[in-house]
Design goal:
By secondary structure, this protein is of the alpha/beta class. It contains 35 helices and 26 strands. Strands 1-2-3-6-7-8-9-10 form an eight-stranded parallel sheet.
């Protein structure tokens, strides 16, 4: 970190001949244990620096040099002026501390974005700082927690709590007391600066007296104590989450703070300090962090992280660990190094946490490395929205996204003994505590190898299962699960994992689907699993390996995923057609093919599989979304369960009208469609390709395959109005270039990355993909007024198909950069363009799904014994 202290000195006090002396005093104060820096301030005043200016100089120097954040001098001056008002007693006393002045100034600059969301006034900010000072003095400096009479917690629950999200308690001793009263075995203390929670403390805020008291409190209660190093900090270059980045995110970019954290751990009796592993290229520097604990009882443990540059799955993580231990002396590795396994971060990176935990657990055993566990819950790398700013939502450990108990059992069967930290936002519930405690204390009667061997035998004797291809059954981690919970337990686990593969779902929707699945009686869960087997069975490759599942259809049957985050007022307008049903009347019938979906306005409906009631749905819930997009039979019967039940209905034609009109009330839906429809069409393209490949095993003629797609024209009719949502003038702004192609020319190629999208002004083209045998499979045809190539602009994935001209074509071209500039502002034009694209993709999904359904029927006729042969 470079810093021109001369410039700041001149700015604060004018040109001084004592610059070198002043600079030396400022540097010494960076490590001063005195919260008020009394010695340094006295020395500065002896050099002629006025009272007040000494505080500004110390505060700005500390903020910039030690923490990397440049404080505006106007901010510091304003805080001092505010403190000068007589009625502001706490603030007046506390600004005598340079660091408190730093923290108050940080909060003052960050609060507009993090507390007031750009709606606060100057007076609100002043009141906020005064309140912060009052709470800081009362809750930390003057707070006294009596530890007289404390005794060790007897038989504590085998789980540790966290303080990262604690926003009520300032005093760390009070946090220890809270864990003591909850009778859990310890806590992981978060030290940090949070712009959104001013009750977090940095190491220099722990006075020597407070450190000694924390150590004594932990010892008396018999609790375990660890520290999570700072990971947030101020945001720079601007104090705004949209325009700045957290300065403490990478521990290697704030070394002074991290060194102080290790010293704090020594002083308060903490056993471990957790650091995130962020920069894969600086493992030698990470090893240097471990060496800072050399000669102390503190372990520096590195935690796998997620959503950084590059993928940090378990393979990458252990590769980094291999490199780190190469820089460590053996005694330092044994005494001062460790691993914190965060299963939630593995899940967000797209890796099964069970498989990742196995790899990391085996590595730690092989290298005799200390292991601890962060248990948490999330639903993978899914869509998210505030207040969750990441897919790593830290839900309760007893949730259904990650099976924490199973992971603990696996690691214990490997021979590990370790602590489990329940890293969740909500306070620990009795259910959370019981789940971890039971997994930690249950007897482990068999070693990992024995359970794996039993699972391997079970899988070998079971025969082929579509949900359990060889890529699953050949892995020891899934053999372990089959050996522990049986084949049905393995299949259930795989269904829940598949739900998290649906990238178009939000976190809340994935949670609801998973919970709904697990709420089903065991018989229904088994039936649904069998239904999945039957659905995906006809599209196996010649090797019998499932390449792409249709689990998305199951997810959409269980929950109205697409509409899940739209408010009720907008849903009332989207589902404008209303139908009334009396109790017992059937709304839709199992096995009937549907063309519409429903939104419950009032009353209640019951869901039946056969004659067995599966669930009840209340007002505000949605069902039947699958029928809007796919030509499949209803998987359940829905009947009215109240005297009068009113449902809103959305048909396919009504859906098209919504996209064409693009009213503001539909913008949430349009944006959601824009995000997810490309994946749905890509998935359907792939399933269509697989069905063609399967059919090619049973028929010798290629002519039939080449004719598939002819029926698409009847559905994708050319429109008189090229742009049902966009004016001609707007279209000219979007499509800036015209290109001409002769018949038989390839316009875009499958697998290429997108440079732009095309609109057909004249002529006809077709979308084609290649089968495994190299034959061309026609997905559909595009006519005058239709757009193609737009999917790769939306999700930046390679082209999913090639487009070849059928007749000479005149095409308008939209460049990728222009597309992004139009979409980014989310203006009226943005939504109308998104609606136009969604309408195009929606029509293609409907058309292609019809062809796909016909293919599956044909495949079933060609090989009616397929199911029995593969069981």
């Amino acid at each position: 970190m470079t810093f021109s202290s001369t410039e700041d000195i001149d700015c604060t006090i004018g040109v001084s001949r004592d610059r070198d002396k002043i600079r030396s005093i400022l540097e010494d104060c960076l490590s001063d244990d005195d919260f008020f820096c009394r010695k340094g301030r006295l020395l500065l005043r002896q050099l002629g620096i006025p009272q007040g200016d000494d505080l500004i100089l110390l505060a700005r120097h500390k903020s910039k040099v030690k923490y990397g954040y440049v404080l505006a001098s106007d901010t510091v001056s304003h805080i001092l002026d505010l403190a000068g008002k007589k009625e502001k007693q706490s603030l007046q006393r506390l600004v005598e501390s340079p660091f408190f002045l730093v923290k108050a100034s940080w909060l003052y600059e960050h609060a507009p974005s993090f507390f007031f969301f750009d709606k606060g006034k100057a007076a609100d900010l002043d009141d906020f700082i005064v309140r912060f000072a009052d709470e800081y003095e009362a809750g930390l400096l003057e707070n006294r927690v009596s530890i007289d009479g404390w005794e060790k917690v007897r038989n504590p629950h085998r789980v540790m709590g966290v303080t990262f999200w604690e926003n009520q308690i300032f005093d760390p001793v009070a946090l220890v007391d809270k864990m003591r009263c909850e009778k859990i075995e310890g806590l992981e203390l978060s030290v940090d600066f949070h712009p959104f929670n001013y009750k977090k403390l940095l190491p220099e805020e722990f006075s020597p007296e407070k450190r000694a008291l924390i150590k004594e409190a932990v010892c008396k209660a018999g609790l375990k104590l660890d520290i999570h190093s700072p990971i947030v900090g101020p945001y720079a270059p601007l104090p705004n989450p949209k325009k700045g980045q957290q300065l403490f995110f990478d521990p290697l970019k704030c070394p002074a703070v991290q060194s102080e954290t290790i010293r704090l751990a020594c002083d308060i009796g903490a056993r471990s300090v957790v650091f995130h592993l962020i920069d894969h290229k600086r493992m030698k520097d990470m090893a240097a962090l471990v060496k800072k604990a050399e000669g102390t009882p503190v372990r520096v443990t590195f935690e796998n992280y997620c959503q950084i540059d590059g993928v940090q799955n378990s393979a990458m993580f252990v590769a980094c660990l291999d490199e780190i231990i190469g820089f460590l002396p053996e005694d330092v590795k044994r005494r001062n190094f460790g691993v914190t396994l965060d299963v939630g971060h593995l899940n967000v990176e797209g890796e099964d946490p069970l498989a990742g935990a196995e790899r990391i657990g085996l590595w730690c055993l092989a290298h005799d490395v200390f292991l601890r566990l962060h248990a948490t819950d999330n639903y993978g790398k899914l869509l998210f929205s505030p207040p969750a700013y990441s897919a790593d939502v830290h839900a309760n450990v007893s949730g259904r996204g990650i099976n924490s108990a199973l992971i603990i059992t696996l690691l214990r069967s490997l021979g590990h003994e370790f602590d489990v930290v329940a890293e969740q936002i909500q306070p620990l519930s009795p259910r959370d505590i019981a789940l971890i405690h039971k997994a930690q204390t249950a007897s482990v009667d068999e070693p990992y190898e024995s359970i794996v061997a039993r699972g391997k035998d079970r899988l070998a004797n079971w025969g082929f299962e579509p949900l359990i291809p060889s890529s699953i059954s050949s892995k020891n981690v899934y053999r372990f699960l089959a050996g522990l919970a049986g084949i049905s337990g393995l299949k259930e686990y795989l269904v829940l994992r598949r739900i998290q593969d649906q990238k178009y779902l939000s976190v809340d929707e994935a949670r609801k689907i998973s919970q709904d699945f697990m709420k089903m009686p065991l018989k229904f869960r088994n039936n649904l699993t069998e239904y999945i087997d039957e659905m995906i069975l006809p599209v196996q490759s010649e090797h019998g390996v499932l390449q792409k599942s249709e689990i998305d259809l199951i997810c959409q049957n269980i929950s109205g995923a697409l509409f899940g985050t739209i408010n009720n007022e907008h849903l009332d307008r989207i589902f404008s057609e209303v139908r009334s049903y009396r109790k017992g009347e059937t709304i839709c019938e199992q096995n009937a093919v549907g063309r519409e979906m429903y939104y419950i306005r009032s009353g209640e409906v019951a869901v039946f599989l056969g004659e067995n009631q599966l669930a009840a749905l209340k007002p505000g819930e949605i069902f039947g979304e699958i029928s809007l997009f796919y030509n499949v039979a209803r998987t359940a019967t829905i009947r009215a369960a109240a005297d009068i039940t009113e449902v809103g209905v959305l048909t396919r034609s009504g859906f098209e009208t919504i996209l064409q009109d693009s009213h503001p009330y539909s913008h949430d839906l349009i944006y959601r469609l824009y995000s997810i429809l490309p994946d749905r069409l890509r998935n359907l393209n792939e399933k269509y390709r697989m069905a063609i490949n399967a059919l090619s095993l049973l028929t010798e003629g290629r002519e039939r395959k080449m004719r598939i797609g002819e029926g698409v024209d009847a559905i994708l009719k050319p429109k008189e109005n090229f742009f049902p949502t966009i004016t001609g003038e707007e279209a000219r702004l979007l499509f800036t270039e015209t290109k001409f192609f002769d018949a038989g020319r390839t316009v875009i190629t499958e697998g290429d990355f997108a440079e732009g999208a095309y609109l057909i002004l004249e002529g006809k083209a077709k979308a084609v993909i290649s089968s495994d045998g190299g034959e061309k499979i026609v997905l559909g045809e595009f006519d005058r007024g239709e757009i193609f190539g737009e999917m790769a602009l939306i999700d930046n994935k390679p082209r999913s198909a090639s487009v070849v001209t059928v007749t000479p074509c005149e095409l308008a071209f939209m460049e990728k950069g222009a597309f992004g500039r139009i979409i980014e502002p989310l203006s009226s034009l943005s939504f109308r363009l998104m609606a136009f694209i969604c309408l195009s993709i929606f029509r293609r999904i409907i058309a292609l799904d019809k062809e796909y359904a016909d293919l599956k029927k044909m495949l079933g006729k060609k090989n009616p014994g397929n199911k029995e042969q593969t069981r």
